[in-house]
Amino acid sequence: MNLQLAARFARREMRGGIGGFTVFLLCLMLGVAAIAAVGTVRSAISDAITAQGAVLLGGDAQMSFTYRFASDEERAFMDAHAVRVSEIVDFRSMAVTREGEAAERALTQVKAVDAAYPLIGEVALDPPMPLAEALASRDGVPGAVVDPVLADRLGLVPGDRLRLGVKEFAMTARIALEPDGATMGFTLGPRTIVGTADLEGSGLLEPGSLFDTHYRLLLPEGAQVETVRRAALAAFQDTGLRWRDARRGAPGMQRFVDRMGSFLVLVGLAGLAVGGVGIGAAVRSYLEGRVETMAALRALGAESGTIFAVYLIQVGMLALVGVIAGLILGAGLPLVAAPLIAERMPIPLEIVIAPRPLAEAALYGLLTAALFALWPLARTREVRAAALFRDLGPGRRALPGARLGAVLLGLAGALGTIAVVLSGVPRLALGTLGGVAAALVVLTLAALALRWLARRLSGRARGRPALRLALAAIGGPREEATAVVLSLGLGLSVLAAVGQIDANLRDAIARDLPEVAPAYFFVDIQPDQIEGFRARLEDDPAVSKVDSAPMLRGVITKINGGDAREVAGDHWVLRGDRGLTYSAAPPADTRITEGAWWPEDYAGTPVMSFSAEEAEEMGLKLGDMVTVNVLGRDVEAKITSLREVDFGTAGIGFVMAMNPAALQGAPHSWIATVYAEEAAEAAILRDLATAYPNITAIRVRDVVDRVSEALAAIARATALAAGVTLLTGVVVLIGAAAAGERARIFEAAVLKTLGATRATVLRSFALRSALMGAAAGFVAVVFGAGAGWAVMVFVMEGDYRFEPASALAIVTGGALSTLITGLLFALRPLSARPAEVLRARE
User: Fold this and answer.
1) 10-17 contacts at long range (C-beta below 8 A, 24 or more positions apart)
2) What residues make up the domain containing 155?
3) pTM greater than 0.85 (yes/no)
């Protein structure tokens, strides 16, 4: 093999143009651009989170506690290590305006701050004013600033009064920017900011009330954050301390961005797989047009390896062009859309060209191009000088040889390994790549089955010439059907899976949850209020059920005397504090799977009932000792029973329940769920909120709406990425139609010569296209249903129900897209004159 000679031939042959590689370039460019664009945006957000860590957090470090303020020892530690400390109290409450029947109520997330807040950054208000001025008292009434959503919901304008608990505040401004808002996590209500001192007498921060305290620390210049962190955890880890610092100022946001970005990159890889089908088809079509050139070279003594190298060099150069074009497009689109993206982000964002995501996209593109182009390229070795070289097809080997097969497997393995390693979510990457590979196999088998079925049925379509011609063309030796079903089918499969999952999630929320979910969650019910609370609901005919339970919050710190995380791993139960209750007798409908509940008058050493599923996941068993830190006090309890806890009903569920004596004297409140008719919800809320202003009511339907909004946003992002995959499939579809145009011209000429009318030929072309598109759509629906079932059952742990509307849209879309494309490329064949065409083929 002479590489220098091959390079010279490749360069000379490419002087004639690359028109046959348009689809090749477009497919590669779109796939690389999608991955590069997602990577560029993700990189910009990650860089912004890192750079803005201290601003997002509101300090260099944060020490947080649940249900309590920091102790004197903890405050002394903070003062010793920080130059300034700011205390924040975070909790939910009901914001109430007006009185009596005219009263309006809305759930709000209250942030109570001190004079030092914010340590870093600045709260922007509308109308503009310093936060201290906005929170200052006027005529004895303290000020409050509220989120615009809450202001609009309650019809508040500056100067209006609102109540939090039994304390009245004056709304002075709307919140335009909350510098640390992105780190406060998922909230059920819009924000209200007040002064902590002004909450005195509100009844909202009573013993046992649900609240979190966050202490922001501004460290001295040159201080080592890691050193302070280790000292804090060594001194206070067993008291329920949660630590966060500016190195990961917004871990929840970072985690979501990483996972969502990784998933979209994987969807982009599905688009590259679709493009790979087009790449293979484009290379095959191009080489079919170069058979005579290859034969001439062989006749002049060129080795098969040299001919292979000629076209490998050409494809390699074009692959580089396609990848570079994709990188330019993928980096350029986020730069153009930067103002729109930044406007929707809660943090300052600067989108710049990032080398790493572009390098990843280029690597994916080059590996995909090599994987799908090598197979048709290898067939150049089979060209012989002594044959009639009209094409590469009939009689030639369909499967690659052993050496090429090993190379292709190696490329596929490298592509998969890189995707798994770079994604950061190995299980999701493996699942997605496995799904794409399975889809390609299923679609290939479906294309072969379609061609076989078309050959069998074509002979039975007598009397229907258009249908018979269409079936004969689908089942013929040309590979148009395979390319169409593969490319269009994979793009539609992604959309079908997204459609099925989205429809099932919406259906579960809209249909299933309201049947089992309570109307309201009530929290912060004080022990002396629970009897009056129950009395209001007992005789209400619209109320079908009321569940209530005492609740505390505790952090599991030790298991059998050892560190809990070292014993049970990073289980979700160990990530922060968890709900804890007590009960003398098993609550109604409790199903104990192992062990037994304690006697009602039990007053011995603390004992505990643990959720059976979580216990199995954590490796806990009967007799194990679990240490729970409750309000700074360690309570070690022995597991004496395991019980079923269903967290999917939206009712009350606790991982841990103890005997009452174990928690005797610990300040706590009660929670309750109320199951009632929707028409009675307003009256229930009015009566209870009026009687007990400190109680917070969480309307379950509002929570469902928030979850639905989040799911809809994720579905839109996924559908957009899937749309790029489908667009690539359409490009491949157009390429397949364009590549077959010459054959259709000859076919139309022969049919006209034999007496077929233009209408018959047109119907034949239309039926051929529609049948291939419908087949691709049908397979996509089957595969999408399977993927949807797997996600709903194994990932979401829910039920699956086939959604016919989405499926019908997919099949119809597949048929229409191929029909329209086929008809567009049928114009020239229909207008061609048979005599001119047939003479040219002599």
Assistant:
1) 10/309, 10/310, 10/311, 10/313, 10/314, 10/317, 13/290, 13/293, 13/310, 13/314, 14/314, 14/317
2) 61-222
3) no
